[in-house]
Amino acid sequence: MDVRDNRAIDFARRRLAEMQERALDCRYRFSDGTVIEAADVVCMPAGTTGIFTLATDLRGPEIYLDLKLRPAFVHEFLSIMTDKVIERQEYLRSTYSLEHEGTYICGNSSALLSPDDYRAFVVPVNQRYKEHFGGRCTLHCDGRANHLLPIFADELRISCFWSFGYQDDKVLVAGNLGGKAVLVGNISPMNIAHGTPQSVIAETLEALRVFAPLGGYVIQDGSNIPPGAPVLNINAMAEAACIFSNLQPM
C-alpha cells in the first residue's frame, strides 16, 4: 500500500468541504451564552479505525480463527498494519498541517476478544501507535467491553473513553475509568430512536447519577443516533442535563 495514494484522501477532502458548507447554518450555543460556528470546528480527522478493526475489515471473520490457529501470522499482520497506519497518519498530518495532539483509536471489533487475547495481540500494537504520536489517547469501543475495562484503564491508560456503548455496565465503567478518563456516551440509541422524551430523560439522569460525581462525563448516544430518531428524544438528553443541574432548558 502506498500511503501517498491520494484517492481516499481526495474523497475525504471533498466530504470535508461538503460538511463545512452544510455546517454554515449550524451553531453550538452554550448555557453561558457562548456561540461557536459549527463550520469552524469541522476538520480533517487524525486517527485510525483501529489496528485490529482494520485487520478484521481486511481479513474478515477468519481473523478470529487465526488468533488460535495462526498466532504468528496475526502478530506479523498487525505489525505491518501498524507500520502503515503510522505512515499514513504522518503523511496526513504533514500534508494537511494537522495539529492534533495525541491519538484516536477505534476498537469495535476487539470487543469480541477475551482479555488474554486482547492483551496479547491488541495492546502491543495500540501502545506502539499511541507512543509514536505521544499525548493523550482517545479510545472508541461501542461493543460490550465490560471485560476489557481494566486493560483500557491500567494498561492502555486511555485519556478518553469516547462514545462507549449502551451495553457497558455503568458501575463497572465508573469503577475502572472514573476519574482517570473523560467518559462520553452510554445512552441507548434504541431508546433515542424508539423511546419517548421521558424515557430518554430517565436513562440520561441515571447515567448522570453514576458518572457526574466522578467529573468528566459528557452526555452522548452510545453509539450513534439512528436515522429518523425524533428530535424531541435527542433534545431530551440536554433536558436531562438541565434537570440534573437545576437549570432551565435552553
What do these coordinates show?
This protein is of the alpha/beta class and 250 residues long. It folds into two domains: 1-43; 45-245, TIM Barrel. It is built from ten helices and seven strands. The protein has helices spanning 7-22, 51-59, 62-69, 71-95, 115-133, 149-154, 170-177, 189-194, 197-211, 231-245; strands at residues 27-29, 35-37, 103-106, 137-140, 160-164, 182-185, 217-218. It has a five-stranded parallel β-sheet, covered by helices on one side. Strands 1-2 form a two-stranded antiparallel ribbon. Strand 1 and strand 2 form a beta hairpin. Helix 2 (51-59) crosses helix 4 and helix 9 (197-211) packs across helix 10. The longest helix has 25 residues, at 71-95. The protein starts with 6 loop residues before the first helix and ends in a 5-residue tail after the last helix.
